[in-house]
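Example record used in the benchmark description.
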Amino acid sequence: MSTEPKRPPFDSNRAWTDAASMVSANRDLLLALAGVFLVVPAFAVAMLIPPPQPAEGADFQAMLAPFSEYYRNNAVVLVAMALFQMIGNLSILALFTDTRRPTVGEAIRQGFRYTPTAIAAQLILGMAIGAMVLLPIMLGGATKSFGFTALGMLAAVVLGIWAWVRLSLVAPAVIVDRLANPFRALERSWRLTEGHVLRLLVFFVLVLIGFVVVMLVAEGVTRLLLALVASPKTTEIVATLVATLMQAVMSVYFVAIAAACHRQLAGPSVQSTVDKFE
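Model output (structure tokens):
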């Protein structure tokens, strides 16, 4: 009786090296893609309809109210920006993983082609995680016990994070494996991440923390230096641009990381997407 061979554990060092190689090898094309799809819309939204600043000393409800109004009033613009950035991320993913070395236009067409599948998969994923999060909270609340409610909230957070990691490779499953069916893309990610959740989670968290620290330092130093020589308005514009650029860099790297993780976990049946860059 044949059994499926045991896959080696996920290697985060290899994933990071592969991701960095993808970014480095495509940096010229990435300037166009990331600039148009990630930097420009985010910077425009940040400058034209900036999010509200919470008042000092306000309670949680008072802090939440202006944000609720902000998202309600600007929902159309924010959804359009998110859709535009999704197309950009899928196009960047196609650029990283297509062995035919597509042009920018070809990568955009491929990203646009699979955007409906990615949207459907994200909606299904959101509803699934939402149900997993709400169920333990509702069960804890039904007991009318603070301890059980807190336990339910903790279980909800753990379940939500676990499900997110299991389905974190949906985008490369759509683009690399050419899966137009969102359910098949979700299933593909679920199978690939089986047995690797903890390693993937630690890897994602460490990379996220690293980027957040760099972003905060870059924006803080920019504000500090410009405050000495420029007007407050100029300082705000340049600092916002720096923050937007750093966010775009982080997005590009996370797309590359997703591609590298998919390549590694999919095994030898998938064509190399990094060797061609070296």
